[in-house]
Amino acid sequence: MKVESEVGRLQAVLLHRPGPELENLVPRDLERLLFEEIPWLPQARREHAGFARQLEALGVHVYYVEDLLRDLARDPELREEMVESQLEASRLRRDPARAAVRRCLLEEVPPEELPDRLIAGITKEAVRRWKQTPSLSDLTAPLNPFYLDPLPSMYFTRDHGAMIGPNLLVSQMTHRARRRETAFLRTLLRHHPLFQGVKAWWEEPLPTGIEGGDILAVAPSALVLGLSERTSEAAIEVVAERLFAAGALREILVLQIPSRRAFMHLDTVFTMVDRERFLIYPGIEERLRLFRLAFDDGRVRAEETTDLARSLARLVGVDRVELLRSGGDDPITAAREQWADSTNVLAVAPGQVIAYDRNEATNRTLQRAGIEVLEIEGSELVRGRGGPRCMSLPLDRLPLG
Ligand SMILES: NC(=[NH2+])NCCC[C@H](N)C(=O)O
C-alpha cells in the first residue's frame, strides 16, 4: 500500500459509516463537538452507502474503521489496549470514574459491540452499576450525560492521518473532541493485518496540531500543507524536518488560509483534481500566503513566495498547472457552494472525481474542463462540514505513469 499523489488511481480507502454517534449529538454540545447541525442518521447512512457503492463500482477496496476494529476486539489483549488508549485520549484520563468505565467496557459490553459503542459515546447511566456510590458526576448526568463523548466527526476519516509514500502520518488533532479518533487509527496500524508492511512515520504524538485535511501529496516527493485553524506552524516544522531527514520529501509548499470555521482545513478550499489541475475557492485566493520549505544542509529553510500556479507547477515538476475556480464565476454562488464542500472532491483517478450533486455550478465548471464528475447525494452528510475528500482516507493509489 502506498500513496504518492492525490490523484493516482485509487485502490483502497478507509471509511467510517455514520452511526449512533450522530444521534448522541444535542444542541448544547454542537460547538464543542465541531458540528453546526444534527444530521438525520438514516438518510446520512443512505447517502454514505451511495458514496461507498460509487467507490466499489470503480473497483476500489472499501474498508471500514469499525469493521477492522471489530476484528481486533475479538482478542482480549487488544480489546484492553483499545479501551486503554481510548481512555488515555479522553477527558477521563485522570478522572476517578476511569476504572468504572473501563470495567463496564471490558466486562459488560460484548466485544463485537465495543468499537461501535466507543464511537457512539458512553453515558454515565451505562456505567452506574460499576460504581460503588453515586458521585457528583452522576448527579450532573441530566445536563452532562456522557463519560465518553460521541465522536460525530468520525466519518471524516481523511483527518485521521495521511499515507505519505509507504507509511502513515497519524494526525495530532487540534481539538480534544477528535483525539480519540486518531487513537483508533494507531491501534489499527499497530495490530491489524491490513496494515502489515505499513508503519507510522513516527510513534510519539506531535507536539501540536496537524490534521489530514491539510495534507495533500502533489507528487512523489512533494507535499502541499495547509496552515490553518487545525494545523500549526510548529507541527509543520517538525513534520518537514523529519520527512526531509528521512529522504521522503524534496519540497513542501505551505498555504496559509484564514483561520475560520468555514475553512477549517485546506481541503475545504483547495484540492487536486488531475495531474496538472487544481480546484480552488476563488474567495480565498487574495488572502492566501505561500511559503516554500526545503532542506538545506540538514536544516529546514522557509521562504515566502508568491504566485500559486507557478509554485504548484514547480512542485509537480511541470511547466504550468491550471487552477479551476469553484462557484461558476459568481462570488455568492461560490461562497454558498464552498460551505457545502464544493472543492472537497475526491480524485479517484487523474481527471475523475467524486463530488456532491448539490454543488451544481462548481461541478459544471469541472465538467466543462473535461473532468469526469461522479455525483453523489450528501444533503445530510454535508451538515458535518465535509465532502467526499474528507470522508475518505486513501490507503493505496497507483503511481502516476
Ligand atoms: N478535512 C475536512 N475538511 N474535514 C472536515 C471536518 C469536519 C468536522 N466536523 C470538524 O470540524 O472537524
UniProtKB/TrEMBL annotation:
Alphabetized UniProt keyword annotations: Arginine metabolism, Hydrolase
Gene Ontology BP term (one): L-arginine deiminase pathway
Active site: C390 (amidino-cysteine intermediate)
One Pfam family here: ADI
Molecular functions per Gene Ontology: arginine deiminase activity
Catalytic activity line of the entry: L-arginine + H2O = L-citrulline + NH4(+)
EC number: 3.5.3.6
Pathway: Amino-acid degradation; L-arginine degradation via ADI pathway; carbamoyl phosphate from L-arginine: step 1/2
Gene3D superfamilies per record: Arginine deiminase, L-arginine/glycine Amidinotransferase, Chain A
Domain of life the protein comes from: Bacteria
InterPro entries hit by this protein: Arg_deiminase (IPR003876)
Family: Belongs to the arginine deiminase family.
Full protein name: arginine deiminase
